[in-house]
TrEMBL record:
Keywords: ATP-binding, Membrane, Nucleotide-binding, Transmembrane, Transmembrane helix
One Pfam family recorded for the sequence: ABCA12_C
SMART domains reported in the protein's UniProt record: AAA
Listed SUPFAM superfamilies: P-loop containing nucleoside triphosphate hydrolases
Residue spans crossing the bilayer: 40-58, 392-412, 432-458, 520-538
UniProt similarity note: Belongs to the ABC transporter superfamily. ABCA family. CPR flippase (TC 3.A.1.211) subfamily.
Gene3D superfamilies assigned: P-loop containing nucleotide triphosphate hydrolases
GO molecular function terms listed in the Swiss-Prot or TrEMBL record: ABC-type transporter activity; ATP binding; ATP hydrolysis activity; lipid transporter activity
The protein's name in its UniProt record: ATP-BINDING CASSETTE TRANSPORTER SUBFAMILY A ABCA
Length: 928
């Protein structure tokens, strides 16, 4: 059924016009919430400040004199003036790592020698018969054991025998040295020369087999520092094993594995010569690496060069000649300070927290979203605004985290623009939330859930070189882990840069395979693009109470306004129509609707065809039938009033008409468009004043109307004029009220603003749900005049509990009870149809009540008493049985017989009609 006036219907504002309206509103909203935004932006600054304070406190503790390089005042010129000289010679072992070493020491290569009480001996747990008896531990002369295996036993034993020279007390060059002291992170000052024992390993020891070892460190041109240590001879014991598995088993038995009761049986080392011969040297070396990773998580040097040099020399001596490893040394280094870069260590988690706390930026509450939707707001503009504009608001907040971190010392060594790019690629989820509180809660869950999981779980996988890279990439598909990985890599490069004084991450580092940043960037870029479309889809499907069919993307997008059509509702077939067939006005309305559905054109703006809404039962409760087969037709220029008790189904009916819920069966046509399939176009002709005011508390009345006016395609002077006219019509223009924030409005002022919003843009259909609630009499009268003028050339559906309002505004009324329409007509018709009697009221003493009732019975035998209390009685008297003159005459006679305090005779009011219809309908539905 075509709509004859479809061409004159309001036109939808263009996408960019609506996006502009949304952007203007959001900017104003953010400006009004400047305090909250400042707190949000300052949050990362507070975190950075805490980092700086913590860093300062830690630096003060780390740079105390006890940890600085030792210094002494020395008279270098002999003139009595001293010069402060700092160096290793004046430092303790704790101070030495911070000293300058322009000429590092040349250390002889050392073995990691087991202490005497830990050397391998024969025992119950280590039952190898060729090991020495454990009695040697009492005398402290247990040898150190070297295990040998290989394909050629003769070659292996020959090489082992030539490793250690015979006793040579005067020749330290050929000595094999070792120490039982623990190593450190560097070898600028090996602990072997200041603590522990220094050993000279020989094939056998004699009474005079000690060697003095001396090393020298040039501190300055005029000062040097010498170390002289006496070695202790220890004999070597070379033992053959048949296979490498036997060696591995003995080593496993010898070293402690967390069992305090296990006896140590440590070996010096082991060699597997494999297939070595005169032309091929192939060897595996076992060594003690149990101390390289200590309890503080730091990696220390391993004394391995001496073991490799020893076996290499033995092979060369046997077949080629001899090659000596003279010394090992570190690179020169300047003076350093002991520092812990807390910013780089904790910056990852702190910036992660700072970014996620902004996840609720730009999230609209559900009610406000639906208000904009029902005021001619294109869903595409709203969805893309939420997916794009809110994303950039979030990214801006992330930038603030980055900027604060930059000024607080975090990421100082990294390229700033890389971090900005990484922030931009991180997707957000505000489009998935319709409530600010929900978004905030989820944001904090992401912080303390994903952030902590990243720090304590995901980071361990990143640092484990043996963990498959494919699984790392799979875990990074979760956006939180991808973000954490990027921040982690920045922290690592920044930490390294701060330690070495070099630059951190640069663009060239993104292609490095070890940091995985290229994978992170690609993943986050793809996720950002994908989540934009997913956010749009989710917003379309779940943006309102009804939403769209999840398969709607498979349908072809309509580029033109669909042609109007009507057809009988499928809901009538097979469904019971809950209408009292004795009510001719309701039956007549239904027949009118059926006739309109068959006509090719119509001037009716609203046609409801057997509209029905049933809410399913939950928690053991039966289903609730809110609307029972409603048929109704409204022409343009008519204001239809819906009366009914609370819970009658009025709001459910309006919710279906404005698209918040879908009908169970039946349908309705607004300006010829079906609300089930063409709701997007219905919005262009519709205005809504909801039952509860849905306003932005920080926006003014003028800003509200400007926003909704732009959504209705108003521009320039016409927009300004429409806003001012709307404000004047609802008495919100004078006295600066228009520019006052809505949060400071009274309840009545908010209702007037909601009415103005529903009427701006000249909608063809307007729904007003109790618009005058909370208004004072003067404001209510002014609002009634506004609605009365507004109904010209538009259809208005108005719900109210005020009979006075209904009688003043509405051309027709419908009384709605228990989900069904009980009667339809103008106020005069309803009073005539349901109020064919006078209401007689008289107040006397209680003793005279019987006399009053007898007088009424004489006047009207069919009178019905409807009220009685404390001498006051009320009767309904059929008009055809009495005349007004008879009533006055009877009252005058009664006054002469007994005292009459008050009396009255009135015609039936609309309120009486409402009560009568409602009570009879409720009784009918109880019986059915």
């Amino acid at each position: 059924m075509a709509d004859s006036d479809s061409d004159s219907s309001p036109q939808t504002a263009a996408f960019w016009a609506q996006a502009d309206a949304l952007l203007r509103k959001n900017l104003t909203y953010q400006k009004r919430n400047i305090n909250a935004n400042c707190r949000l932006i300052s949050f990362p600054f507070v975190l950075c400040t805490l980092l700086v304070i913590t860093q300062t406190l830690v630096d003060n503790q780390l740079n105390k004199n006890s940890r600085k390089c030792g210094c002494r005042c020395i008279d270098t010129n002999g003139d009595g003036t001293c010069e402060t000289v700092c160096g290793l010679q004046f430092s303790s072992l704790d101070q030495s790592p911070n000293c300058p070493v322009p000429s590092p020491l040349k250390w002889p290569p050392l073995f990691q020698v087991p202490a005497p009480q830990y050397r391998s001996v024969r025992s119950a747990s280590n039952p190898f018969t060729d090991l020495p008896d454990e009695s040697c531990r009492q005398t402290g002369n247990c040898p150190v054991t070297i295990l040998i295996t290989g394909a050629n036993q003769t070659l292996g034993q020959s090489l082992a025998a030539s490793m250690f020279s015979p006793p040579s007390p005067l020749n330290s060059t050929n000595s094999v040295l070792g120490s039982d002291s623990l190593t450190k992170q560097d070898s600028f000052l090996d602990p072997a020369f200041v603590e522990g024992s220094l050993y000279n390993i020989q094939s056998q020891c004699t009474s005079n087999s000690t060697v003095n070892v001396s090393v020298s460190l040039n501190v300055s041109k005029s000062s040097s520092f010498n170390f002289v240590r006496e070695t202790v001879c220890v004999a070597s014991l070379n033992l053959w094993r048949n296979s490498s598995s036997e060696i591995n088993d003995q080593i496993y038995r010898g070293y402690e594995k967390g069992n305090a009761e296990r006896q140590y049986n440590e070996i010096l080392g082991a060699y597997d010569f494999l297939n070595s011969n005169a032309n091929n040297f192939n060897v595996n070396v076992w060594y003690n690496a149990t101390n390289k990773d200590t309890v503080d998580g730091q990696y220390y040097l391993v004394r391995l060069p001496g073991a490799i040099n020893l076996v290499s020399n033995a092979y060369l001596k046997l077949f080629q000649g001899r090659m000596e490893l003279e010394f090992i040394k570190e690179m020169p280094k300047p003076a350093t300070k002991l520092k812990l870069d807390i910013a780089s260590l904790l910056g990852t988690l702190f910036l992660y927290m700072g970014c996620h706390t902004a996840i609720s930026c730009g999230v609209d509450s559900s009610g406000l979203r639906e208000t904009t939707k029902t005021t001619n707001h294109d869903e595409n503009a709203r969805a893309w605004r939420r997916a794009l504009l809110d994303d950039f608001l979030y990214v801006f907040s992330c930038y603030m985290c980055t900027i604060h971190g930059r000024f607080c010392g975090i990421w100082l060594t990294s390229r700033f623009e890389i971090l900005h790019t990484e922030r931009l690629l991180h997707p957000i989820f505000s489009a998935f939330f319709s409530n600010v509180k929900t978004a905030t809660v989820v944001g904090y869950i992401c912080v303390f859930g994903t952030g902590l999981l990243g720090g304590f779980l995901f980071q361990a996988f990143i640092e484990d070189a043996s963990f498959p890279k494919g699984w790392i990439i799979f875990m990074e598909l979760y956006p939180g882990f991808a973000l954490y990985r990027g921040l982690y890599e920045f922290a690592e490069y920044s930490l390294s840069g701060n330690s070495l004084g070099t630059h951190g991450m640069k663009w060239g580092n993104l292609s490095a395979s070890e940091n995985g940043m290229s994978d992170v960037m690609i993943i986050m870029l793809l996720e950002w693009i994908a989540l934009l479309f997913i956010a749009y889809y989710v917003d379309q499907v779940f943006s309102s109470g009804s939403g769209k069919n999840p398969k709607y993307l498979l349908q072809k997008f309509r580029k033109k306004r669909p042609s109007s059509f009507r057809r009988p509702s499928l809901g009538r077939q097979g469904s019971k129509v809950f209408v009292d067939m004795d009510k001719p006005d309701v039956v007549q309305e239904r027949e009118k609707v059926e006739q309109l559905l068959l006509e090719p054109t119509t001037s009716h703006s609203i046609v409801c065809d057997n509209l029905r809404k049933v809410y399913p039962g939950r928690d053991g409760n039966p289903e609730k039938m809110a609307v029972r087969g409603l048929s109704l037709a409204l022409p343009r220029g008519e204001c239809f009033g819906m009366l009914g008790p609370n819970g009658a189904g009025k709001t459910s009916f309006i919710s279906m008409m404005i698209g918040l819920t879908t009908p169970t069966t039946g349908t309705a046509y607004v300006e010829g468009l079906d609300i089930r399939t063409q709701m997007d176009w219905v919005y262009t002709s519709m205005g809504v004043c909801p039952q509860h005011d849905l306003l932005w508390e920080t926006l003014t009345g003028r800003e509200h109307l400007l926003f909704y006016g732009r959504l209705k395609n108003l521009k320039g002077a016409s927009l300004k004029r429409a806003v001012e006219d709307s404000l004047r019509s609802v008495n919100l223009f004078n006295g600066g009220v228009a520019d006052k924030q809505a949060g400071k409005y009274s309840g009545g002022m908010k209702r007037r603003l909601s009415v103005a919003i529903s009427l701006i843009g000249d909608p063809k259909v307007v729904y007003m749900d109790e618009p005058s609630t909370g208004l004072d009499p003067a404001s209510r009268s002014n609002l009634w005049n506004v609605v009365k003028r507004a109904k010209q050339d538009r259809a208005i559906i108005l719900t109210t509990h005020s009979m006075e309002e209904a009688e003043y505004l509405c051309d027709r009324l419908g009384i709605f009870v228990d989900g069904s329409l009980q009667c339809v007509g103008n106020p005069k018709e309803l009073r005539g149809r349901y109020g064919g009697s006078y209401v007689f009221t008289m107040t006397t003493s209680v003793n005279d009540e019987q006399e009053v009732e007898q007088m009424v019975r004489r006047l009207s035998p069919g009178a019905e008493k409807t009220y009685e209390m404390a001498g006051t009685q009320k009767f309904e008297m059929p008009k055809q049985e009495i005349s007004i003159a008879d009533v006055f005459e009877a009252v005058e006679v009664a006054k002469s017989k007994f005292p009459v305090y008050a009396w009255g005779l009135s015609d039936t009011t609309l309120e009486d009609v409402f009560i009568k219809v409602a009570n009879s309908a409720q009784q009918f539905h109880k019986l059915t």
